[in-house]
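Write out the 3D structure for:
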Amino acid sequence: MRKNWYEEYEKQRQQAEETLEQGLAEYSLKRGIEEWKKSGTLLNESHFNKICQWIPEKIFSEEAEELLVQSEAALKTQRQKEAHRLQRLVLGSTVFLILLVIVGFGVLFMMEVKEADKIAEMVRKATVTEGIAQPNLKAQVEKNAKLEQAAKKAQQNLNAQVEKNAKLEQSSKKAQYLLQKQKNQTLRTQSLLLSELARQQTQAGHQTDGILLALEALPKKLSKPDRPYLFEAKTQLYNAIIKQYLHEEHVLSGHQDVVSHVAFSPDSQRVVTASWDNTARLWDVNNGTQITVLKGHEKRVKQAIFSPEGQRVLTVSDDKTVRLWNASNGKQLIIIEHKISLTHANFSPDGQYIVTTSLDGGARLWNANDGKQILVLWHDWPVYAAFSPDGQFLITVSEDNARLWQINNGQQIALLEGHQNIITKAVFSPNGKQVVTISVDNTARVWDGNSGKLLTVLKGHENEVTDATFSPDGQRVVTVSRDKTARIWDVNQGIQLAVFKGHEGEIWRVAWSPYGQYILTSSSDHTLRLWETNHGQLLSVLKGHKDSVGYATFSPDGQYVVSASRDKTAHLWKFNDKRLITLSGHDKGVKQTVFSSDGQWVMSASDKMVSVWLASTGCLLNAFTADEGVIINHVSFSPDAQMIAAALSDKTVSLWETNSGKQLATLKGHKGSVNHVDFSPDGKNVVTTSGDKTARLWENDGGKPLMVFNGHEGQVNYAAFSPNGKHLITTSDDKTARLWEVNSGKQLSLLSGHTDSVNYATFNSFGTLVLTITKGWRDKTIRIWEVKTGKQLAVLKGHTEKVNNATFRSDGYRVVTASEDKTVRLWVSKSGKQLAQFEGHKDAVTYIDFSPDGQQIVTASKDKTVRMWNVQSREVLAILSGHEDVVTQARFSPDGQYILTASLDKTTRLWPVFSSSQALIDYARSIVPHQLTPEQRQQFFKE
């Protein structure tokens, strides 16, 4: 590593170390106070020393001060008791020795005197004894004094040793702590580097590597962390997951040679693989297990496909046979023999016929039920054949031309000539009206499917075109080439729309997803790549194969991809159900987006277009465009999502049927631009507001006008029904909001007090409270009103700039607000007391929404990001970045599993939500096939 890098992170390490020490001390003090209050437990010596060392005295509370004083006194008393105990032990030993001496001395004076005549002698002896004993006693006393002095010295030494041991223990603990802290700091520095590597890999399209690197930077279990937790690593893990469109589900291994072809069953539940090991194999998609092996061919099997009904499998081999098998038990049903090598075979759309091509100059049509030949279509060296979608026509391809045939009589109806080299493939468009052919001459050509007339030549590739296919709607063609590029073309005009670059080897095959959002390319560089079709953006690089990938395709339901490789395996990939889905197609900024009530559909609206999408896949259902010069001001789903209402600037409201796109009614009556439209809770009626100072109620069925709400003195900006549909609130430029009874049209309350135009209002979930906000810069308040009385209950003051949005929590007792002052605030509904302030956005917060359970909020901002917050802890749970312009809206799905965002960058996005950081980590581990390999570690961790 470079020196300046290490110094920077060493500085960060030291700062983090001090922060951690202080945090631990603060935590010890907090827990100590709790235990002291609960059971009178005082601080131990370790916690006392840590708190005194790391927490400044000036920030001690009275409780903390008292706890520390009492703990210090208790610790001193405890130390004194230990010293006194040792002293008493030494002194007791000394006293015992002295008593022994005194007892011995007394025995001398208690001797029995039996003979009177020995008194003098005894006196003399006693005198002598006394003279002798006196010096002995003095010596003993001196000896005892020395023993006492030695005991005191021993006590001092013992005390010193105890103190020394305590210091050693404290030093040991400190050394262990410093060692652990150093280890954590090293791991933290490593995690920062891994997070940056994860970001780079994700950005390059290597999302699996991004996930693996981010996982390496995070603890496996947050409850028992084996390394420090970094928000940066969590962010990169989330970004890698949501951008990983496909993840490897199963490796289908068992073949002993190249896997040459692979196909899904019509129900997407099975896969068949063909191999040069002379076998084909059937696999279960759900668990990747092998169902059966189709044995019988004597040479390479180069093609295997399911019949349209999925009950049979067709295989083509170099042993000059085509074989039909029972797809359930693998039993061989029919053998169709040829005299020369086969090149291709295919089922008719109804499964009743099979067409085969071989190098004997004929394309043969066979009865798929009994294997009998029906007719031969002679063609010089045919190499490929395909049925039209209706099964009425057949196209065959040869070295220098292609031919269209009528199947019922075998007549040739067109000769497609013009390529300058060998033609290798031909494909009908989904409606059968066009045919595309590809050639070694570096071009593809589009022909009329009925007459064979050349429509356009697709020029641009610099090498042989290896594959081509139509988009599901038939409006585009994608081609791939040995020049390592894929290209999308407009069929009608022959214009190149996008070029896909990135593969490092020849591209062999290309597939279009069933709904048309993606294309998949397979290459000799051992990878597959997934691309977004509208802009040519690389979405994901699928790595795992160890040799050239010769074939890959989507499952019919669009949920899986299977690939075949020279490495003797097929890989099954599953679409990530937690991926980011981008809904693009608007030609102007998206200003509104909304979920249907069941969460199945998403609607997005710009000034000119309304689009309806399937939430699970991002598939476009319908798009509605306003007439020239007309602006779409607001849109709304009916409660059952079967209808869409759009408020238009031409004084009308349009009602459309969601599924068919059929216009059901046009509501006419307003004398000014219609600003807002909303359905009643039962879906039977619609309320509209207008610049003509009125709100109007309409019947959906036929668009019959029911009622006009008059009274406002300025344009009416907004209207909303109460949850039970009995009340209506309207807001106006006249600085008021008004409550109405829906059935009678009677005005119940005039809500006045704002000093600027009122542009928004909403009821709480019980319909008992309503809040109002203004669209001006002078009035920065939110007001809460009681529906029953019209009484103002609270004014929420605190924002320093204009309030952009506000909403009730589902329980009705909390309100959250978003403002131009870059903050979000949480309030008590009835009292107006501010509970929390959320800061982090770099620009104005434009929109806010509660999760269904009220535990999170999501915010949209002019800083181009979306943030998800925990309401209780006020922590940022996720930062959703990727929009390229102001994010105008962000809202949770009805089930809380997704966040829907709208932006002026002309897109709407669906983001997955994880309930916790641990849930994110666990999900990531479930979708990656392995940990970093030694080779990857060497690649990523080298300096």
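Residues 869 and 877 are 5 Å apart (CA to CA).
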